[in-house]
Amino acid sequence: MSTFRTFKSSAMRAVLASLVAGGLALGVAQQEPATPETAQQPGMQQDVTLPSGIDPDQPVAQFGPDEPLTQRQFAEEFDRSIRAMAMHHGLQFTDEVRTMFDRFRGEFLEMYATQQALLREAEQRGIEITDVEVDQRVDQARVQWGDQFDQTLTDLGFADEMAYRESVREGMLAQRVVDELRADVQWTDAELEEFHAQHRTQFFGDREFDEVRADVEQRFVSDRLQQRFGDLRAEHGIEVFQDRIATEPGPAGLGTN
To answer: Do residues 11 and 18 touch, judged by C-beta distance below 8 A?
Structure first.
């Protein structure tokens, strides 16, 4: 219980803040593999459910005219990602932990939509991740998970190793685009000083510009990346319907309500 409370009070906020700020880190592909001691979590369940009255085929996002993200698909993606985050922090994936994450479903949907935009941008830019690069990431997990590798993939909600490999590849593709976008961000001293003046109290503890210049640069780049993410979503025709997100999903038995 002490581990749960510590995570809930500190690491939980830090993890989710970084996810929202970065717009990435979706799923296990963006996490370091769990240690063998935490790889297999008793009580993990394979399915999710939707509240009564929710159409599982209703889109909660649209990734182009012929590619909806349905309530069912979103519930499964969200479940898989929070399993990965719980495992990464050594938490048993109980209903209490699920409930702890559940209020961030809206933020996750936004991040997932951003990842889809980044994947489409990777394709447009001709960015590829080689099988060797994926092998290296998967082998790292295989070493750390040991003889629990297959069971861990199942616990995380992956149908098989190929599904896990695809998740790893997508995470690496998205990160590659982010790296290129970050490298494209340019600024002048005047722009940094203006950004500092606008957010001096909010982000910088009311300190002088010269004292926090490095922090100002970091936050300026993050701000410009967020703007670029929004542009990419628009360019690739990605739309999110926050008002349709199902709430209070149960722990098991995804039905066809």
So the answer is: no
- Taking 3-state DSSP, the helix, strand and coil percentages for the chain, each rounded to the nearest 5, stand at 65, 5, 30
Task: State the residue range of the domain holding 98.
Answer: 2-32+46-244
CATH number at residue 24: 1.10.4030.10
Token pair recorded at residue 117: 């935009």
Q: Give the separation between CA 230 and CA 197, rounded to whole angstroms.
A: 24
- What is the helix (H) or strand (E) element at residue 163, kind and residue range? helix 161-184
pLDDT for the residue 247 = 65
Q: Can you give the pTM of this predicted structure? A: 0.79
Q: Is residue 37 part of a domain?
A: no
> Which residue, 122, 75, 67, is CA-closest to 238?
67
- pLDDT bucket at 106, cuts 50 / 70 / 90: very high
Q: What would the 3-class secondary structure string for 214-245 be?
A: HHHHHHHHHHHHHHHHHHHHHHCCEEECHHHC
- Could you give the 3-state DSSP secondary structure of residue 212? coil
HSE-CB at 23 with a 13 A cutoff on CA atoms is: 25
